[in-house]
Structures are given as structure tokens and as C-alpha cells.
Amino acid sequence: MFPRSLCSTARFALLGAMLALTSTSVPLAQAAAPQLRTSAPGYFRMMLGEFEITALSDGTADLPVDKLLKQDPAATEQELAQSYLKLPLETSVNGYLVNTGKRLVLIDTGAGTLFGPTLGKLAANLQASGYRPEDVDDILITHMHPDHVGGLAANGSALFPNAVVHADRRDSEYWLSKANLDAAPADSKGFFQGAMASLQPYVSAQKFQAFDGATEFAPGIRAASTYGHTPGHTSYVIESGGQRLIIVGDLIHVGAVQWEHPTITIGFDTDGKSALAERLRVFNQAAKDGAMIAAAHIAFPGMGHLRPAGDGYRWIPVNYTQSH
Known about the structure:
- The protein is an alpha+beta fold.
- The chain has a single domain, classed as Metallo-beta-lactamase, Chain A (4-Layer Sandwich), CATH 3.60.15.
- Helices cover 29% and strands 27% of the residues.
- The strands form three sheets. A seven-stranded mixed sheet has the order 1-2-3-4-5-8-9.
- The longest helix has 18 residues.
């Protein structure tokens, strides 16, 4: 770089001069690159035995969980802070796609347009993951709250034109009942109206099928009744190659509080006592058997295992995988 005839002192002096010249002759950036503030497409894929499981994000929604959980609001705020979370809690809404190799089964569809602009992303993330809405053969609904069925339809048309929708008869008879809608308090009528609007295209096309309790839909996919959060709330058990995944819908909402204190219920429950009993039953068995849990409102992808910890559980999120 420098002539060997220059002494060390001269070489360093010349280098300093060159650096100074460079620093003054190159213009500084005028502004930072704009912030994008979005994440990558919201899907996560893994294998369960021979089945391919794809978690699909519908987005997130801010929830005032201090007003919803059945405990002192100050205690909720404190427990959230221990997990570096704050109010309102940004809460995931997740759905799950199961490819058995013979059938493509979607479990829950997200909120669609029923809950505002931060949700309604499940269909786009389904396509980003490599599938199309028309590829889906069956849709299994855990329950008919709007954030689970709103993604079924848009502008009165089915978004999954080739799919048959399945839900427990107890839920369909409750949420699709005009008499129940008419009798509901004003602030609850939207739950009934959202369910009716979302299911109507499938009912009209005779592509809605109600089932009664434990039902097998395909080898390795079956319904397990977990009534309480709603009259017909259902979990779905997926099994392949000796591995088990339990998609539990809304058995839990706020992991930062309810993993450690599972006896705390939430105002969304139709029957809080039954919802609590089902949560403890399913979670105790999953912790004992080592089954994986997938939950609609645990931080995306909402999948992991449970370990007993005191009077509650320790949540072990699924390890990232490229699904070889």
C-alpha cells in the first residue's frame, strides 16, 4: 500500500490524512430507511408424524384482559409486567391447517372483518404458506365466537368454496338461533350476528354439518368435547406416527396469567365453571402424556408442551423447525 521507503511514522501520518480526506469527501446519509413495522407472512410449519401442520396467524388484537379475567385487575397488570407485557394485551388469533396427505383440514378461520383491521389475515397467510382457500376440504370449528368463524365468508359469499364446515350441534343450535339473538343483551348480539353471517353461505349450500360430541372426521382427526367456554366448545385431537396434537381453541386466553394460575377464568366463558374443569382435565392429561397443545390465543404460533409447575403449568413453546 505504501512505499517501503516511508518510515512507520510517515506511513501512519499519511494513512491518517487519507482517512480524514475520505471522511470529509463522502456525504453522510440524509435520512434513515423508512420503518416497515410488519413481520414476515404469518405461518409456521412442522410435521406431526406423517401429517403436515401449518399454524396460520389471523393477526393480533389488543384486549383489556384486566377487565376480562376474573381476578383483581391490579394482579393481572402485575403478572403481565413480570412477562414484560402491558395493557391492553396484544393477543394472537391463530388457526391451524392439517394436511394428512389425503385431506386438507382447517381448524378455525380467524375473525375476517368482524374485529377490525388488525385481524382478518388468515386467508392471506394461508396463500402465503402455499395453499389456496379452494384447496381446503373440511373446516372444523372449535366454537362460533366471531374471531373463530369470521374468516369463513365475506360479503355474503363463502371464502372456502369447496369446504364442508363442521361444528358441534350444541354450538350451532345456540349461536344460530334467532330466538337466542333476540333474547341476548345488546352488547352480546354481535356474537350471534357474526356467527349467522359467517355460516349462512355454507348452510344455504348444504355445506354445513353439525356433529354430536366425539366424532372422527378422518383417520387421525377427531373431535373431543370441551364444553363450557361456549355450549358446544370443541377441541380437536390430531394423531400421526405416535405423536399427538390437541388443538384446544379457547381453553386458555392469557398465558402470562393462566399457565401459572389456571383456575382464573375469563368473562367470555358461557359457563366458567365447566370451562375451568375442561381446561384442567385437558391440560393435566397433556402434561402427563407429553401431547402438544395448540391454542388460539397464545402468542403465535401458539404451539408447545406443558410441564406441571406448582398449582399450574410451565409452557414450553415449540422449537423452530424448517419441517424437513
